[in-house]
């Protein structure tokens, strides 16, 4: 990607830019709400046609599809404008020795000061996973924080999952499956021995995630280019895309283990180590008369303590199908947020759109519901490293940038799935 030098922005210009950003968000949100009003009107017409003629008009269906697509595009625009505004407000300026040394390394390949700061010798740097330095130099802490904050905005599951940062390649923790036994006794009655707690040891290895942005030497020599911010911008989108896939369906071998990669079982037969599911009753879709009921059942399959922070997770196409559903009183189950920047709701719970969730096909687990902060854990190994390579892709300079991240289900009580099947 080509870098372009940008003039330094003055404080009054920054304020004006931020005000303009808020105005764009407000306009986009107003457009979205008007489109949703039109959507409800057209869908009501479609439902009336189905009731009267058992078939809806083709023109009505096409109109509904166009508005539905417009809703998705407007929601993406609102999310993007909101994310950009958050990143601007979270921006940090760092002028420490590490930043200066790192900039010298990125621009010219001069690693002398970085080597001194990290307490390493060039001869002693090892390239193995188990070494303290994995074949590169640590980016400044502020840059790492900026990348991780952006990832939380861009990677849907990271944004709602639990999180821990470690300094090694493996995170282990015990988890209490069932508590110690307890009971009531009289003041002088004997105290029977209670059952001990059941513990499970959960292990979350971190896997290497990499990106390799490239720039020309000419642009790296341009003093007006903030190479540190450029590197952060380049790698965060690549990291977010790969994390989004891994946290949903990763194999747990070369990538973190996604929550859909764990064994599943019908909720009535649920046991620890598996994710429970409910079936829609129809292969690849909802039962027209019981769609609301199965969603309500899914909500209440989760224990009360987990429902307080629960949310639905699905992709755009599944959300489009659910957007058409009503309850027995004719109210739409899916509702847009009345405040810009917040998520829409389904049965009162936030909806998180995740493109990497499967489509609602026969037998697919296209919808998840749960408290992901308690149910899924993202493990980051501290430190993001980059290795400058001016040789492999001449005339470009590439930057092999790596971070280590793991993930997996930490509480199998906290997440439930909806299976689009007859049983």
Structure in a nutshell:
By secondary structure, the chain is of the alpha+beta class. It is built from 12 helices and 19 strands. The protein has helices at residues 11-53, 58-89, 97-108, 112-118, 141-154, 156-160, 217-220, 227-249, 291-300, 304-307, 316-322, 372-375; strands at residues 137-138, 162-166, 170-178, 198-205, 207-211, 214-216, 264-266, 275-279, 281-282, 285-286, 311-314, 334-335, 345-346, 349-353, 367-370, 376-381, 385-389, 396-409, 415-419.
The shape is globular
User: Main sheet?
Assistant: 8 strands, mixed
Q: Report the β-strand fraction as a percent range.
A: 15-25%
Number of distinct helices: 12
Q: In CATH terms, what is the architecture of the largest domain?
A: 2-Layer Sandwich
Rounded mean pLDDT score? 81
In whole angstroms, the N-to-C terminal distance is: 49 Å
What strand line-up does the widest sheet have? Answer: 7-8-19-15-11-14-13-12
Evaluate the radius of gyration.
26 Å
Give the structural class: alpha+beta
Low-confidence stretches: 1-11, 86-95, 120-134
CATH class of the largest domain: Alpha Beta
The name of the CATH topology of the largest domain is: Major capsid protein gp5 fold
Assign a percent range to the helix content: 25-40%
Number of domains: 2
Number of strands: 19
Tell me which oligomeric state these chains represent. Answer: single chain
Q: Which superfamily, in CATH terms, is the homologous superfamily of the largest domain?
A: Major capsid protein gp5
């Amino acid at each position: 990607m080509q870098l372009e030098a940008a003039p330094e922005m003055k404080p009054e210009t920054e304020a004006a830019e931020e005000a303009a950003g808020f105005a764009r968000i407000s306009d986009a949100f107003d457009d979205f709400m008007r489109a949703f009003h039109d959507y409800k009107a057209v869908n009501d017409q479609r439902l009336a046609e189905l009731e009267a003629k058992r078939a809806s008009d083709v023109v009505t269906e096409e109109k509904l599809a166009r508005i539905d697509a417009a809703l998705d595009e407007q929601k993406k625009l609102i999310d993007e404008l909101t994310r950009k505004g958050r990143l601007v407000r979270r921006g940090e300026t760092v002028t420490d020795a590490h930043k200066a040394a790192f900039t010298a390394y990125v621009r010219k390949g001069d690693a002398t000061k970085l080597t001194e700061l990290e307490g390493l010798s060039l001869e002693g740097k090892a390239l193995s996973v188990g070494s303290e330095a994995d074949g590169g130099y640590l980016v400044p802490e502020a840059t790492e924080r900026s990348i991780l904050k952006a990832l939380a905005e861009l990677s849907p599951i990271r944004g709602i999952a639990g999180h821990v940062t470690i300094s090694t390649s493996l995170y282990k923790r015990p988890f209490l499956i069932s508590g110690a036994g307890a009971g009531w006794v009289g003041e002088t009655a004997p105290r029977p021995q209670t059952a001990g707690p059941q513990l499970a040891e959960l292990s979350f290895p971190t896997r290497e995630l990499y990106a390799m942005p490239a720039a020309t030497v000419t642009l790296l020599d341009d003093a007006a280019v903030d190479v540190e911010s450029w590197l952060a911008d380049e790698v965060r989108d690549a990291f977010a895309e790969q994390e989004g896939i891994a946290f949903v369906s990763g194999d747990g071998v070369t990538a973190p283990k996604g929550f859909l990669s764990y064994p599943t079982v019908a909720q009535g037969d649920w046991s620890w180590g598996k994710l429970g599911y409910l079936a829609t009753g129809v292969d690849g879709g909802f039962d027209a008369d019981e769609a609301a009921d199965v969603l309500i059942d899914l909500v209440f399959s989760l224990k009360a303590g987990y429902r307080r922070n629960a949310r639905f997770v699905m992709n755009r196409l599944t959300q489009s199908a659910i957007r058409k559903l009503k309850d027995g009183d004719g109210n739409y189950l899916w509702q847009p947020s009345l405040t810009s920047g917040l998520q829409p709701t389904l049965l009162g719970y936030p909806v998180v759109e995740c493109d990497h969730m499967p489509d609602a096909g026969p037998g697919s687990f296209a919808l998840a519901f749960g408290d992901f902060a308690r149910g899924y854990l993202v493990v980051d190994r501290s430190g993001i490293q980059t290795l400058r390579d001016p040789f492999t892709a001449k005339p470009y300079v590439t930057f092999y940038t790596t971070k280590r991240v793991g993930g997996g289900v930490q509480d199998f009580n906290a997440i439930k799935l909806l299976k689009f099947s007859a049983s």
